[in-house]
Amino acid sequence: MAERETLRAFQARLAERLQAAQSRPVAAQWLAVHAGGRACLLPLPQAGEIFPWTAPQPVPHVRPWFLGVANLRGRLCGVIRLAHWLADSPLPATEPVAEDAPAHLVALGDALGVNAALRVDRLLGLRGAGSFLRVQQADAVRPPWLGPCLEDAQGQAWQVLDLQALATESAFLQIAA
């Protein structure tokens, strides 16, 4: 009988905790990364697993931003050099691309339906909306995968990348040179 009451008490506590977790606002919304001197924010629901740098197998006759394919937990993923992909966009670079620096791979989320990973220069942690003071105005026509540009308290600009829009971008999907 005591076990039954203990189980009921446990279930009641668990239900309370689940309800409290659902009503609590999500603190982190983005994974902050640096790629080619650009500070970028990747939406957490669209980003997948983070991997240490794994040298991909080169693929001939591809665009310069496509590094090749890598086996990430048994899944073959195309590896995209995010800094070079962004170099073709209307974003200013603040420092040169360091090819020999330690890097990481951020896989696109499974829900996006694209087996791809982005090579980023540095991981900078998680960020929430409270980390930013204002949205900067965009002065140019921008591709749909470039989200808003946010500014933090130090004046650093952070570019939000819409990975879902990127995964459907025809130029992103066409890797042949």
UniProtKB/TrEMBL annotation:
Per UniProt, residues of the CheW-like domain are 27-172
InterPro entries for this protein: CheW-like_dom_sf, CheW-lke_dom
Q: What Gene3D superfamilies has UniProt attached to this entry?
A: CheA-289, Domain 4
Question: What PROSITE patterns does the entry give?
Answer: CHEW
- Cross-referenced Pfam families, in alphabetical order? CheW
Instruction: Please indicate which superkingdom the organism of origin belongs to.
Output: Bacteria
One GO BP annotation of this record: chemotaxis
Name the UniProt record assigns to this protein: CheW-like domain-containing protein
Organism field: Pseudacidovorax intermedius
Q: What is the lineage of its organism?
A: Bacteria, Pseudomonadati, Pseudomonadota, Betaproteobacteria, Burkholderiales
